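Lab notebook, bench 4. The sequencing result for the construct came back, and we need a structural model before the next group meeting so we can plan mutations. Quick request posted to the team channel:

Model the 3D structure of this chain.
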Amino acid sequence: MSPEPSRDLPHHAFANRFDEALARRGPPAVFSVDADGELRLSPDRTREVLEAAAPDPLPDDWCHCLVQDAATGWVQYLLLTSPALIPALPRCAVKRYPTQAAAHAALARLGPLPLAPATWADEGL
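Done. Here's the predicted structure in token form:
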């Protein structure tokens, strides 16, 4: 059995109690960072990913991920509430980290404009 996922969020808090309740007790979902730097449910992404994911993924493990857009190279942090959602993320490369802090340390290494080369997903970042 894998270790308990890190639910410590030193870099981004949830935008509100609704988003936090969804992440902690709701169905599998995708949360992105909004303009205020807070985690908020990303409903369009969640719908898209759930349609492509394995049947009935369970929200059993938080996944702190850096996701690179295939078209632009842009890298951003996403919180996924089920590892079953990772392979279903469209048009991107994904790296999973054990904690939010580890993901943000890797994101910071990309610099102020987080763009990465096409080989980013294969590199140890």
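Helices lie at 17-25, 43-52, 100-109.
Will bring this to the meeting.
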